[in-house]
Amino acid sequence: MAAHIVPKRVYYLVFATLLLLTLVTVDVAFYDLGILSFPVAMLIATTKALLVIFYFMHVRYSSPLTWVFAIIGFFWLMILIGLTMADYLTRAWISLAGG
Amino acid sequence: MVTRTAEPRTHYLNVSYGVMSWLLTLDHKRIALLYLISITLFFFLGGAFAVLIRLELLTPAGDLVESETYNKLFTMHGVIMVFFFLIPSIPAVLGNFLIPMMIGARDLAFPRLNLASWYIYTLGGLFTLVAAIFGGVDTGWTFYTPYSSIYSNTHVILTALGVFIVGFSSVLTGINFIVSIHKMRAPGLTWFRLPLFIWAHYATSLIFVLGTPVLAIAIVLVALERVFGFGIFDPALGGDPILFQHLFWFYSHPAVYIMILPAMGVVSEVIACFARKRVFGYKFVAFSSLAIAALGFLVWGHHMFVSGQSVFASLVFSFLSMLVAIPSAIKVFNWTATLYRGAIAHDAPMLYAFGFIGLFTIGGLTGIFLATTAVDVHVHDTYFIVAHFHYIMVGGAVMGYLGGLHFWWPKMTGRMYPEGWAKLGALLIFVGFNLTFFPQFLLGYLGMPRRYHFYPDEFQVLNVMSTAGASILGVGYLIPMVFFLWSLRYGSAAGANPWDAKGLEWQTPSPPPPHNFPETPVVKEEAYAYSSQEAERG
Amino acid sequence: MAEGTTVLEHQFDDLDQQREASSLGMWVFLITEIMFFGGLFAGYAVYRSTYPDAFAEAGLHLNVLVGAVNTAVLILSSLTMALAVHAAQVDRRKALVVFLLLTILLGTVFLGIKVFEYADKFRHELVPGYAFAFEGPHAREATIFFSFYFAMTGMHALHMIIGIGILAVLTVLVRRGRFSSEYYWPVELTGLYWHFVDIVWIYLFPLLYLIGRA
Amino acid sequence: MSLGFPLFPEQASTVAGRVDALYFFLVAISVFFAGLIFILVAYFAIKYRRRPGRKQADPVPDHVGLELAWTLIPLGIVMVSFIWGARLFVTLSRPPADALEIAVVARQWMWKFQHPTGQREINELHVPIGRPVKLTMASEDVIHSFFVPAFRVKMDVVPGRYTTAWFEASRTGEYHLFCAEYCGAQHSGMTGRVVVLELAQYQQWLRGRIVAEPPEVVGERLFAQLGCNACHHPDRPQLAPFLEGVYGTQRLLVTGETVIADEAYLRQSILDPAAAVTAGYAPIMPSYRGRVTEEELSQLIAYIKSLEKIQTTRSP
Fold first, then answer.
1. How far apart are alpha carbons C85 and A8 in whole angstroms?
2. CATH code at C149?
3. Does pTM surpass 0.95?
4. pLDDT score, position D286
5. In total, how many domains does chain A have?
6. What is the three-class DSSP state of C174?
């Protein structure tokens, strides 16, 4: 299994996109999107992260095993954050006397 | 079949001599022995703390030691037993020794990391020992905030640093096992031909890798708050001490499975060998290991039903905790079914396996009490919990560890241990264990809280029983310690395969040569092919 | 191939196996890193959802321009790192050295800017536990924000420093001719680590600098 | 008990019997399954022991039906336990509306209680039989846990917030009170007793105590001393909301969210006024963190809660 050599052109393209997305996320932050501002910021960040993972880290060209472990990492991160927030976001659900 | 050695054969023990040949070894087998020595030291140190705890609890008054001392005793007992004995015990000793052999490899994928993990373990251990010598720590092994981050004036940082450091050794071990199991299996050794010991260690390694870092960061945050006055968990700054509990138990609940899964792996090997049968429902047992590892990460909130966690979250965690009982039950039923129509020998490793099944069953069933929210409200933080987790960690993990140590001792040292003494030891440990911890279930339901230095008079009789049991248990642990050392010199030669067992590790001489196999074995049959062996012999 | 055989470790059958094992090992290690930072992200999520106003207000005390410039610097360093891996794959040693040195340089620039930012926080007394003179109704919860700011960026900076150290060792080894297109994966694995650290920053930047700007 | 020492705790609250019923259900399940496993293991170990003539095992093929059986049957049983436990747990988590409200302050290493009529106790709590008692608990330092085994009630007391627990005593007598969450050197000394009295005796006990002012009276005085009434005053509706009748109502916040003005909200509004400002008001209130103790805080809240009862005429 020889390593895949990614053309330099791809790297430059990815780099340009990442810079562009950085500008976008900074710009967007100055508009009041209400509750959407956080999801939008995270969406842009995740897009950037995926670009880095797929191209700079070569996951696009890697074995399924690499995919599995990359996904496990983020999945478990979601478990940690998700179940912790399941506590904090629901603390008011059973509050007053008699309910 | 049996390798005859006319002249001294080169094996991993005699290939080189001298302290440096051990301290700089990259051989997984020697590293396993380094671990064996270190964790044994910590086991007896942790055990000494336990002895003092049980002696203090003999009477209701706090008359043996001061309260401050007592609190340090149970803290040091917990920290040492959990982080420096139980978690590394089976993976770092038996796993390190056996995994490369069981998969037909010359070594683990990263021998240098393997050695580094032992040094890191030792360094972490030194920090904790220094903390103990300078006066110890009194937060409980759980390091709950804000007591640990603000109020305790003992050596929290030093101890926490030890735990933080030893975490890296777990992580390195986990990475090494995962990569080795994926990439270093011998030709023909497909996933479903792997011994269940390997499956169990694979699942354990996943927990090492996914859980340990979260404990590490939790400790870092406590340290930042304690040393630099950061506001993370401090209620005075609007911080929530319960967040620490979330981060802590995200690791420390799965850590229980780090202890029990490898023991389950050992028991699968031992039962198959001494019943001379393939493990019943192999695939179910294999996948239940992965299921335990995965579900184990979803249940940490059951430690927090009365912590002020939201009621809704408690119900979710209760539901998920119920699910993790199922793969454990599957294993127990399958082991029992494996015995059916077997040809069962009652050698010491098998006695430990029987003991494991019995004690783990009790530990597991009482786990359902704790997963049940309304009952947990009453028994949480009482001796019921103490009894429950000792049934899992000592009744389960330590029985598995000792059973495995007996089983593979001939392979590791080339010597047999004395069978009669071994059976006596197993019996004493089983009896002593039950006498120590069963009364604690009753104490817990009666309402005796854990970590109490003195207690109301009506709890004394059960505490006396527990202390009496602990003394039997202590003797039980000393017996194998003595005869294992004795066997190194006086034990009869073991031969390559004293149990006539299946598995690649038994196909190489005892003690194994430096690179395990003269040539890479090729696997053509599934694990535990005891009946096909019979067929071969006609 | 003569060079290749010397790097093959005894426990492996061939270089392919060794390369795959090393690569998998690195990925598993990166999972531990995800979970390590994950604890910080979980804590951040808890407090941000509990004190949204305080976090928004505290976030205004960070300099977006500096953060954005640093983001660009780090992304550029990821590019040079990727190009270094490319150079290693096609056996262009001189280019490899240049790109590694560029990556080190950019990493150092990032850290330099970070030092400047930290100094600014010390000057304005926004350092929990040292001097905290935050004005406003949310002063108390702002301590938590700045605690997370320092914990997160500090852990990130620590990873950068380790990464620069590895890159420095790597550069020396490259100049000694230890690598070739057959045995180049230490460069690749270092790249994986470097890109991971970049990804952490990609999330830290909006979480810390951009909240509450609108 | 004939043994001279207890093996089972007394049942002295209305929920104790219900918790025990579930407990015995689980004990029965455990005895059944543990017994089943022990008997089978012992039976197989003896019957199929290795002996001359039995050197090898008989091959037994895997059986998917069996696997499913011992997956699904335990699953069903634990689900019963989950649902049963969950229903009871929700009951335990919801204090009845008509409960007697007692303020609890925990600190290293003592329990302080204040009755609604003002009587204070330390490490001892007198309660009437047959009347739900709701505990609103705060900690001055580390985490503690209020635990009365005879009531099957336990709840952590967490610094920086209120937690609540409730019980209804069903039998007179004296019962252990323990701190169940490790809290430092004298953790095992942080104990006390709960004394359950008949209602008449309880009232007599209340009368017999040194006459202390009820918490809402002290709270009213504090309210004036701290200058709260400078803004929270009917004459200055533009500055601060009226507090009359505020307890238990829905509050619309400036963020557009609504919250219920319970103890936790009132606590937050006194300590961190800016955290959740009522819609229509500017965040001008200063924080009283550090200026009031946990006990004073509970007295202030008691006063605000009492305003609901006193005020009968409400501005339209």
1. 10
2. 1.20.120.80
3. no
4. 80
5. 2
6. helix
Which two three-digit tokens encode residue B514? Answer: 């430096």
Q: Which residues of B381-410 are buried (b: 16+ CB within 10 A; e: fewer)?
A: bbbbbbbbbbbbbbbbbbbbbbbbbbbbbb
CATH code, D252: 1.10.760.10
Q: Within this chain, do residues A12 and A57 fall inside the same structural domain, yes or no? A: yes
D261 and D207 both lie in a single domain:
no
Chains in contact with D, counting 3 or more C-beta pairs less than 8 Å apart as contact: A, B, C
- D55 falls within a domain: no
A32 and A46, same domain (yes or no): yes
A27: containing domain? 1-62
Residue C132 lies in a domain: yes
Which of C134, B438, C189, B268 lies closest to D7, judged by CA? Answer: B438
Q: Provide the β-strand partners of residue D100.
A: D133
Any idea where the domains of chain B sit in the sequence? 33-537
Q: How far apart are the first and last CA of chain B?
A: 16
Q: Give a yes or no: residue C158 inside a domain.
A: yes
B216 near C CB under 8 A: yes
Q: H helices of chain D, where?
A: 16-47, 64-93, 199-208, 215-225, 263-271, 294-310
Q: Which of C75, C195, C199 sits opposite A19 (nearest CB)?
A: C75
Query: Could you tell me if B413 and B479 are in contact, meaning their C-beta atoms sit under 8 angstroms apart?
Result: no
Q: Are residues D115 and D207 in the same domain?
A: yes
pLDDT, position B7: 59
**Cα gap C41→A58, rounded to integer Å:** 25
Q: Do D166 and D99 form a contact (C-beta atoms < 8 A)? A: yes
Choose the closest CB to A73 out of C30, C46, C210. C30
CA distances from B487 to B491, B494, C149 (A): 4, 11, 58
- Residue among B507, B534, B101 at smallest CA distance from B276: B534
Q: Are B323 and D71 in contact (CB under 8 A)?
A: no
C214 near A CB under 8 A = yes
Q: Has residue D195 been placed in a domain?
A: yes
> Which pair of structure tokens corresponds to residue D236?
């200055």
Under 8 Å CB-to-CB from D72, ≥6 apart: which residues? none
| Interface check B384 vs A, CB under 8 A | no
**How many structural domains are present in chain C?**
1
Give chain A positions within 8 Å (CB) of C30. 70, 73
pLDDT in tens, chain C (214 residues): 334 446 888 889 888 899 999 999 999 999 999 999 999 999 999 999 988 888 999 999 999 999 999 999 999 999 999 999 999 999 899 999 999 999 999 999 999 999 999 999 999 888 888 888 888 778 888 999 999 999 999 999 999 999 999 999 999 999 998 888 888 889 999 999 999 999 999 999 999 999 878 7
Which string of b and e fits A25-43 if b means at least 16 CB within 10 Å? Answer: bbebbeeeeeeebbebbee
A13 Cα to chain D: minimum distance (Å):
42
Here the ipTM equals 0.92
What pLDDT is attached to residue A43?
Answer: 95
Segments in chain B below pLDDT 70: 1-7, 532-538
Same domain? For A58 and A69 the reply is no
Residue C2 lies in a domain: no
D245 and D200 assigned to the same domain: no
Q: How many domains does chain D have?
A: 2
- Interface check for B524 against chain C (CB to CB < 8 A): the answer is no
Domain with C73 in it:
13-209
D-chain residue closest to B361, CA distance: D34
pLDDT tens-digit readout, D31-82? 999 999 999 999 999 999 999 988 889 888 999 999 999 999 999 999 999 9
| Fold classification of B33-537 (topology level) | Cytochrome C Oxidase; Chain A (1.20.210)
Is C6 within a domain? no
Does the residue D71 lie in any domain?
A: no
User: Which domain-ending residue is among D182, D212, D242?
Assistant: D212
Which of B353, B192, B278, B337 lies closest to B528 in space, CA to CA? B278
Q: Are residues D206 and D243 in the same domain?
A: no
